[in-house]
Amino acid sequence: MIPRLALVPGEPAGIGPELCVRLAQQPRGDCRLLAFADPDTLRAAAQALSLPLQLLEATQVAREAGDLCLHPVANAAASHFGDTDPRNARAVIDALSLASDVCLRGEFDGLVTGPVHKAAINAGGIAYSGTTELLAQRAGCEVVMMLANDIVRVALATTHLPLRAVADAVTAEKLLQSLRITHHALRSDFGIADPVIAVLGLNPHAGEAGHLGREEIEVIEPVLAGLRGEGMRLVGPLPADTAFLPQKLVGFDAVLAMYHDQGLPVLKYSGFERAVNLTLGLPYPRVAVDHGTALELAGKGIANPSSLFAAVETCARIAENRKGRSL
Q: Which segments of the chain belong to CATH 3.40.718.10?
């Protein structure tokens, strides 16, 4: 069976809808897509790009360039490129929630999401910290954020925190959870039988034997020792400034960074266009684009669709891997 993937464009005033229109121009053999979105917004994006778009019922099959199966989720107000409207916050959240639910029920095999505008959603009266957190809450599970491209996979022990709060958040419990989820995902989602994970230190030079901080000695190293005893192949804690050297990355299947800006600048520099954002630990694969809403580009036909294409390809591949392991 070809994997069935739910697709959510995200912020209607951003580039998400037009990226989905570009995606629809390439009939796919690796998956079947169903978009959860406002039909008028998609049509407006197609018109702005001068591209064909034929919106189909959810039960139909996309066969021609421009075909896109749709579960309509109507906006409260007409959207305009580059101009967010808080009145449409509910439709964005509803689309994500509906798409998540069909995956949780097993009706779909994965979820691909476009960029969401956090400020617009909060301005619409909905407390929202991120799609990763929303999906984890709906699924009732702990998750890990991983960003990946063709060169490196970077998982995060902590995500969107002020820098001064990171050290307190790097606890033994958090590291154990992050490493177990990442290890399991590398095996089940990426098909790596015996993955090697590099673990970065928190401090410069991984603490310099305690002279630049003791988190490595008191928190990170004991966790790694315990998990090695369970059979995990873990390298570290490593100084972050040299861990990403090409000759070292060759030996790692993933890198666990302690905080957001420790690992992600390297990943984005090495291949931003093909980078994707994965939520590890969900009952279904979720892959998102690794860029924002780019309001200043919306409707101009110049937004690069590579990350969305990579997200769909990655999600379909993971769904196939999970199906293969369940047989």
A: 1-141+282-327, 143-278
For residue 12, cis peptide bond before it (omega within 30 degrees of 0): no
Give the C-alpha separation, 50 to 44, whole Å: 10
In whole angstroms, give the CA distance from residue 283 to residue 287. Answer: 13
CB-based contact 220:201 (threshold 8 Å):
yes
**What pTM, to 2 d.p., does this model score?**
0.93
pLDDT tens track for 190-226 = 999 999 999 999 999 999 999 999 999 999 999 999 9
Taking the CB of residue 194, how many other CB atoms lie within 10 A of it?
A: 11
Domain 1-141+282-327: what homologous superfamily? Isopropylmalate Dehydrogenase (3.40.718.10)
Beta strands 153-156 and 144-148, pairing class: antiparallel
Q: Which fold has domain 143-278?
A: Isopropylmalate Dehydrogenase (3.40.718)
